[in-house]
Amino acid sequence: MKKISKIALSLAAAGLFVMGCATTSGGDISATSLSLRKASVFSEKGITPESATFTKAAPGTAKTIDRSFVNAPPLIPHSVVGLVPITKNNNACLGCHLPEVAKSVHATPIPKSHFMNWRPTYVVGKKGKLSLDGHVVAKTDGNKVYASSTHGKLYPGRYNCTQCHIPQSNAKPLVKNTFKPDFITTKELKRSNLSQNYDVGVNTIK
User: Fold this and answer.
1) Which residues pair with 90 in a beta bridge?
2) Cα 122 to Cα 163: distance, rounded to the nearest angstrom
């Protein structure tokens, strides 16, 4: 009985709190005030998105954009008109961003992390134990990150560049962003070192 009474009192207190909040805010909340666009959330009639423009700078002429955080996929600083959509058989990005070409055209080279397989093949080893690329995996390796080289070939799972890399528009944010990243080195603003420190922050069981 005591437990039931405590639950009842908690529910009653929560109800009074909600009523107090509603009273303090001046009554019911309108459907318009719930929306960041200051329009009804129940209708799209008459709603037009905020106008925004993307850079028209041609590839090779745009200034690179600093990363938002360590190893964040860099934004595309140039126009992508005529370069998208990207398919596994037609990827215009590779014409400039492959490492062997990038330097000569002043483009950002595709990092080493894109030439690695982060999804190793699991096979059955000796005595039926689960193996990883032919090596027996101990139970204590559950949190370890595995990656193997693709021997200079772009990993097939990376073909869709715009899945992670997107152009930046001049649209004003609806909510102020107060996030401030901490970079270990200034090089991290421009280049990715994921292939060297991919296990940082991973709780590896010893």
Assistant:
1) 87
2) 26
Q: What is the mean pLDDT of residues 109-137?
A: 75
In degrees and rounded to multiples of 5, residue 143 shows phi and psi of: -105, 5
Is cis: bond before 120, omega within 30 of 0? no
Asked if 155 and 115 touch (Cβ cutoff 8 Å), the reply is: yes
Place of tokens 């090089």: 187
Share of the chain above pLDDT 70, in %: 67
CATH number at residue 84: 1.10.1130.10
Give the pairing of strands 122-124 and 116-117: unpaired
Q: Quickly list H helices, the chain.
A: 2-24, 94-97, 99-105, 194-197
d(CA 128, CA 136) in angstroms, rounded, equals: 10
* Overall pTM surpassing 0.70 (yes/no): no
Give me 36's structure tokens: 């960041």
In a domain, 45, yes or no: no
